[in-house]
Amino acid sequence: MDDTTGEITPTILVHGGAWAMPDETELAETNVGGVKAAVKVGYEVLVNGGSAVDAVESAVRCLEDNPVFNAGHGSVLNSLKEVEMDAVIMEGDHLNAGAVACVQNIANPDSLARLVMDKTDHVLLVGQGANMFATEMGVPSVPMETLVTPNAVKRREEMKTYNQAIKKQYEIRKIDEAVPVQTGHDTVGAVALDSKGNVAFATSTGGINAKRPGRVGDSPLIGSGGYCDNRVGAVSTTGHGEAIMKVCLAKHIMQYMEQGYTAQEASDKAIQYMTDRVQSSGGVITVKNNGEIGLSFSTERMAWASLQSNTLNYGLNPDEKSSEKYTI
Amino acid sequence: MDDTTGEITPTILVHGGAWAMPDETELAETNVGGVKAAVKVGYEVLVNGGSAVDAVESAVRCLEDNPVFNAGHGSVLNSLKEVEMDAVIMEGDHLNAGAVACVQNIANPDSLARLVMDKTDHVLLVGQGANMFATEMGVPSVPMETLVTPNAVKRREEMKTYNQAIKKQYEIRKIDEAVPVQTGHDTVGAVALDSKGNVAFATSTGGINAKRPGRVGDSPLIGSGGYCDNRVGAVSTTGHGEAIMKVCLAKHIMQYMEQGYTAQEASDKAIQYMTDRVQSSGGVITVKNNGEIGLSFSTERMAWASLQSNTLNYGLNPDEKSSEKYTI
After folding, report:
1. Which UniProt keywords apply (chains A, B) (predicted)?
2. Which of A201, B40, B219, B318 is within CB 3.0–4.6 Å of B205 for a Cys-Cys bond?
3. Could B125 and A217 be called an inter-chain contact, meaning their C-beta atoms sit closer than 8 Å?
């Protein structure tokens, strides 16, 4: 809410995944550059009077198309060296939602999730059924190779098992403990508040390296990979999917906000709860329906960016925030 | 908790699905008979010192094997007239969980979910990947025909579309409005508290008649189809899956219990919330970690049974409870 006019200030946040990103200049630049580009795309939708749900879809498409991130183009490879993707989108007015899981050969899984929301009586379609629906909707099937990047292949070679990937990316480390050197990446997501007071979220991912075929993480699941409700706000999560599901991380944050905590307090408390209760790590971006922003992560790094009142904020490391002016 | 000894009283509840069950004597008898049989199986596990998670798995296997219920043998048919099943199991100590969705040719999906929990680093496996895992574990693949009952075929003929099924089974009706005549059935589930203070839940379903291939409902999703935490209690849900997912019904009930509401108050409040927020219906069974029991449903009927301190309670209609003594 803009205090001077009483109008709602359009707001958007995106993340490029919370994980044990090593301290490499190129990696930092491409990740931060990617989230900054995506947040601008979503903000333009909002400033032009578009809805929160259109904004998060546009921002997440931008991240899916960017090979730097583990979603759409750039997704990790499973144990069979195949790409299986999960995505979700939700709007906070009537709590409408759509999701796909374990879908293959789709360039923009989040837009397919949007079609599930808009065109079916269902919320979640998985596997071959999701691909049958895509065909029905005229969504092109793309060859798997077009989604696979050299980085995804390299990473699959480096981390031969799922357990190894989890340990390297999400293990809770002591302060000063070395971050494992790797070329990983994680889930992307966006949350938005539009000028009419509608909130929305979207999350999209290729999952975790070397996962079993058919493995689905938290990302496409309402309450785990994200949640939104106009009466409260919106959340998108990232991190160790199995751990996030066990605590229903997104719904947990909503609960804290309902209890009166700020978006930042709710985000911090929920990430701490996940550390305490299931000893694993992740990150969240949050917007409250009053325009408050929150973000928190227990991994080494999470690329994020926000845009509100023509101010672009972004960061990668804990307690790091850069600001610049940005006008459409 | 037993007030006289300070010991924890083993407790189990099961449900056979909340839906617009018509008022037919045979249907009532088979449904109530089925949940009474299942709750006894689970109670025997508890009384013999077994764990809550073993008890809920045993009870749900019993319901999956019973052709009266829509889970395992007796599952409904999707739009392609095929059986695709979802199941989940969770224990409340470390929040470990396993689930399968859109799995075919498995007699006891909940036991496959248990294997996901016990034998993998994952929580949820879907579609062909879930069946590949079943093969790896030596779980037999059964011909689909062995899971299909004449009732499921009849129902599929009667209700040609998913939307029709939803309207008939879960639409919020005015008082005195006629219940549609049909031969439906729904999701099964169990919650338990063992003598060591561990809680668990399990839910299993064939989904909803005429669903799209690949459609997954709330049942296998942690926080929607159920939730449990030794610090609070356990919940299993049933009803209109898409609506349950949108409100994360199980996690919502946990939240109310954490706020101090009794198991019954939390269950009633959450079902009312679902009616208000997404205008659809369902049912829940709940046990708090102090042994309190709750159950609530907004559909016409829900077959349920509970066993605690050698007292077997059961019912089918709103505000109906029968009691009898039962000793192992």
Report:
1. Autocatalytic cleavage, Hydrolase, Protease
2. B219
3. no
3-state secondary structure of B278: helix
Q: Dihedral, CA atoms, B106, B87, B26, B159, nearest 10 degrees? A: -90
Which of chain A's residues have a Cβ under 8 Å away from the Cβ of B124? 215-217, 245
Residue A95 has pLDDT above 80, yes or no: yes
A25 is an active site residue = no
ipTM: 0.95
CB pairs < 8 Å spanning A and B: 145
Candidates A124, A166, A251; nearest CB to B223:
A251
Closest CA to B215 of A193, A216, A128: A128
Tokens for A59, please give them: 């921002």
Contact between chains at B212 and A122 (C-beta distance less than 8 A): yes
Give the β-pairing of B233-239 and B226-229: antiparallel
> Each residue of B149-207: pLDDT tens digit?
999 998 888 887 888 888 777 777 665 665 554 445 579 999 999 999 999 999 999 99
Residue A303 CA: distances (Å) to CA of A6, A185, B4, B197 = 31, 10, 56, 42
Domain A11-318 has CATH 3.90.1300.10: no
Residue among B86, B90, B121, B227 with most chain A CBs within 10 A, to mutate:
B121
Out of B122, B214, B246, the one facing A128 most closely (by C-beta) is B214
How far apart CA B56 and CA B38 sit, in angstroms, is: 9
Cα B75 from Cα A130, distance rounded (Å): 21
Are A251 and B102 inside 8 Å of each other by CB? no
Beta carbons of A328 and A296 less than 8 angstroms apart: no
Please state the pTM of the whole predicted model: 0.95
Q: Name the closest residue on chain A to residue B91, using Cα atoms.
A: A246
Taking the CA atoms of chain B, what radius of gyration do you get in angstroms? 18
What's the rounded Cα separation, in Å, for the pair B61 and B94?
Answer: 23
**Residue B7 CB coordination number (10 Å):** 11
Residue A325, helix vs strand vs coil: strand
Q: In whole angstroms, how far apart are CA A191 and each of A119, A139, A210, A328?
A: 22, 25, 28, 19
Strand B124-126, strand B97-103: pairing = parallel
- Alpha-carbon Rg of chain A, whole angstroms? 18
- Contact B187/B141 with Cβ under 8 angstroms? no
For residue A70, give both structure tokens.
């583990």
The number of residues in chain B equals 328
3-state secondary structure of A34: helix
